[in-house]
Fold this sequence. Notes:
7 strands
Amino acid sequence: MKPLAGKVALVAGATRAAGRGIAMQLGSAGATVYVTGRSTRAQRSEMNRPETIEETAELVDAAGGHGIAVRVDHTDPEQVKALVERIEAEQGALHILVNDIWGQSGEPEWDKPVWESSLDAGLKLFRLGVETHAITSHFALPLLIKSPGGLVIEMTDGTDEYNADTYRVSFFYDVAKGAVSRMAFALAHELKPYDATVILLTPGWLRSEAMLDGFGVTEENWRDATEKIPHFAISESPSYVGRAVAALAADPEVSRYQGKSLSSGELAKVYGFTDLDGSRPDAWRYIVEVESQGKPADTTGYR
């Protein structure tokens, strides 16, 4: 079954991690997926990682959809404008927008107050993680609202409930994620009259390519990392949140989630999908009830 056959999606920031997983799962459901990012086979972004948008497009094709790779720097309004004009010329519509742009090179400066942090690095984080979302929405939404039933997914880290009471260990990171949350809230109000739904979505502890490399494991043997990082046992693959997005996009009653903050673990219970290993990790409930309480790692009842 291809519930998204005939649907056109834009996954902004699909080179790797959650964006790649989302693009693949939308493709598996039959969608045509435009995948954007700055890393191509000809040129890497400042992140200097091997994943490319061409690879993501090929994975979309292999999953059963149609992947179209377009190199776009989402900090550049003219490039984003040209992207949307191309989608309209080639497809005539845009039904699904996933704002997953981040592109941060290296880790934020954790555990440093704002006055001790690099101002240049912090403002760059805002530009990459916040301004890009606004720029993309500005140009993409006029096309999306031409078709009733559009879906916009703003990707973040942490549910609204968790982030409301938790300092995210960096002023700039905390504010950036809070800004994306508020974007979803504002867009939900602005797009509701156009029969479009906006959702804030977070994966759990994501086994991204960079995370796996950092822990010295692969997707096949990732559990080996739990010997040193026991709570990594609750982690999930990028395909898990991808299946969450595909399920939302195929749901004719998705508007019931208008403006809501959701997680992949929550949605797995609603739609019945699993991660690649057949489990259903509920990372944010685990983080609150186990990890944050200082309890030993035990995923019983959480995956």
